[in-house]
Structures are given as structure tokens and as C-alpha cells.
Amino acid sequence: MSTPTRHHRPAGGPPFVRDRRGHARVTNEELFFDLIYAFAVTQLSHRLLEGLDIVNALQTLVLWFAVWLGWQYTCWVTNWFNPENPRMRLLLFVLMAIGLVMGATIPAAFAEAGLAFALCYATIQVGRTLVVLANLGTAPELKPNFRRILGWVVIAAVLWIAGGLLHDTARLACWIAAVLCEYVAPMIGFALPGLGRSRTAEWTIAGGHLAERNQLFVMIALGESILATGASFSASPHLDLPVVAAFVVAFIGSVAMWWVYFDTSSRDGSETIEQSDDPGRIGALFHYVHVTLIAGVIVAAVADELVLHHPGEETDLASACVLVAGPLIYLVGNAVYKRIVYGGFPLSHLVGSVLLMMTFPVALQTNRLVAGALTTAVMIVVAVWQTLRPRRLPHRHQAAA
Question: Is the CA virtual torsion 133, 138, 144, 145 positive or negative?
Fold first, then answer.
């Protein structure tokens, strides 16, 4: 009887750098790491719900960009480096702990917890980059890129911490500048005097993995929307007809949002980036688009809670803005995403965006339930329209000469 073959891990565990042969799968470590961001998304939606005014909306937007950038930069790191390596696994767990504290400070980030939020965020961005640089002996070709990244995250960290020490408008201004540093830096190749500039062609990413990571974050945001709907329905003191109708409208709206993104374009998005001659550029575009797309899901979750809490209440200006803005931001984000994937804007999304804007004056003349039903109806029309149209082939992106 033959002895079964035993498979041993190499000494020291899996290599630090990901194996580029074959499809780079999303690991359990990455899925575990994402749980922190499910919490952060919940915190953001609750923060927005508590104050439907311009100032709170702008503050929440800045915090959302911070949450997204922390996740985005880590996503790129786990695309290059193996999360199953013990050093990378430990790094992710430490980032999770700091991220949990950061998420807990979101409600008071523009009050007494500002410095705590800033220190957590700066530690995540700078600390992760330093750890990667210290372990790049097996991939020296990536060192110039990560040195430039370190320069930019340090500049941003100074602005974050300075903002944490300031108050009110000064804090907001510092943090907006910090967000712009980290959001714009990849667009210019992390260019710094003396360190040069990175080219997207040098970012040898696993395209399918990066697309899948973005898709999973969309799922996290939609999951938060479903949880908010269920929690609000459960907390309703009277399960009368308007509340039940609001629950149905909110649930169907979430399904329609899922359909618009996941029906075909998520799969085709993976194919687009995998077949591109410059996957680094397409990966960067995916991240720029998804920050908007997912913001729409977060705002839509707030709209669902508004409808479920008081379905019969007349729609005021703030509520109407939220009810229309959530689906509209999501639809515009999807339209730009599909422009990248298919090479053109889908007519269904353009028409849907116009219809959503037309619901705004109507919403001001009716109650929250009817307003929510109107926006959900538009999302259903878009989902059905794109399902019935002939399927477009993914666009083939070629590197610039």
C-alpha cells in the first residue's frame, strides 16, 4: 500500500511576493481584513444619518475617502505581496486592530476624537509602507515605487495629524488637502523631486484579483444596506402597511443596485483588466471609479433608513437630496465604470440618471415612502433595460505608445 504524499510548506512559510503564475485568488486573510471596513461603512452611514446638512455631508465624505484610501492602498499591497506569508498576515492583523479603533472614532472625528482618528490613519498608511519596504529584498524592482509612495503618505500624514490638532474649518481644510495628496498621487506616478516618477506599466499587478477585490467592497457596502434595512424594520414599533411597504421598497432597491453592477459588468470588468496591455492603469481607474460608486451605496443605505423610520413623513429638502443622491451617485459611478469596461456610456444609465433628477421636485411634493418608491422604480427600469439589451463585449485597452 503506497504512503500518501505529504505536501510541506517551504521553510518560513509562503514567499513574501505573490506568485504571478495563474489566477491570484482572494485569500481568507483578505476577506477577514475586509470585516473592519464593513464596520467603517456602517459608522459612516450612521454618521451621515444623524446630521443631514452640508457640513456633516462634507465631513462624512472626507472620512469616506480616508476609509477608502486605507483599504485601497492595502488592496494594492496584497495584490503584490502574499497575504498568506506570516509577515504579511501579521501586518494585516495589526492594520485590522488599528482600523477598528479608527472606525470607532468616526462619529466624533470632527470633534474630540479628531487626533485619534488622524493618528490611526497615518499609522496605517505610513506603517504599512515601511513594513513593505523593509521586506523588499526579494523584489528590489518595486523599491523605487514604494519609496515614492512612502514620501506621499508621509506628506499626507503630516496634514492628517495637523488637522487632528486643529478644529472646525481648519481641520476640514487640512484633511481635504491630505485626501487630495493620496488620491491624486497615483495619477502623477507618485512623482517626487529626486525620486522620479512611477509608470503604470511598472505596476505588475494581478488584474483579476484587483477587480475581484473592488467587487467584494461593493458587496460589503450592499450588505451594510441590507443590514440597515433589516435593523430598521426590526426596530419599528408598529409593523403597519406603510412600514412593510417601505421594507419592500428598500429591499427591492438593494436588489436592483446589485443587479446593475453584478449582472454582467463585474465579470467583464475582470476580463477587461486581465486582457489590458497596461493593467496598472486600468486598476487605478477602477479604484477612482469605485470610490464614487460605493459612496452611492452608502448614501442609498441612509435613504432606506429615512424611509423605514418615517415612511409617511413629508419629504423635506434634506431627505429629498439623500433619497435621490444615493441612487444617482451609484448610477453615475456605474456608467463611468462601464465606460472603462465597454468603451462607451450605457444609454440605460444616462436615461436613468435623468429620470432620477426628475424625481427630485416630485419627491418634495410627497412623502418619503412614495419618493423612495420612485427612485427604486428607476433603478428597476435601468436593471431590466441593461438585462434585455444585447450584451456588449469588454473593451480592449492598449498601453499608450
Answer: negative
Residue 67 vs residues 75, 99, 178, 200: alpha-carbon distances, Å: 12, 9, 13, 23
DSSP H helix total and E strand total for the chain: 13, 0
Q: 62-83: per-residue pLDDT in tens?
A: 999 999 999 999 998 998 888 9
Joined together, the cell numbers standing for residue 291 give: 470610490
Q: Which residue has the cell 454582467?
A: 264
Indicate the pTM of the whole model: 0.89
Which residue, among 279, 304, 359, 323, has the nearest Cα to 79 in the 3D structure? 279
Q: What digits encode the pLDDT tens for the residues 370-385? A: 999 999 999 999 999 9
Torsion 13-17-23-28 (CA) sign? positive
Q: What is the C-alpha separation between 281 and 284, in angstroms, rounded?
A: 5
Mapped onto helix, strand or coil, the DSSP state of residue 17 is strand
For 235, phi then psi, to 5°, come to -85, -5
The pLDDT tens digits of the residues spanning 265-291 come to 777 777 787 777 777 788 888 888 999
Judge contact between 382 and 345, C-beta under 8 A: no
Does the CA dihedral 133-101-49-218 come out positive or negative? positive
- Kindly report the number of other CB atoms within 10 A of residue 313's CB atom: 14
Q: What is the pLDDT of residues 103-159, one digit of tens each?
A: 999 999 999 999 999 999 999 999 999 999 988 876 677 788 889 999 999 999 999
**DSSP H or E run through 235:** helix 207-235
**Listed residue (281, 285, 286, 280) closest to 212, CA to CA:** 286
Q: Which three cell numbers stand for residue 20?
A: 504571478
* Domain limits, the chain: 28-198, 207-388
User: Closest by alpha carbon to 156, among 176, 182, 118?
Assistant: 182
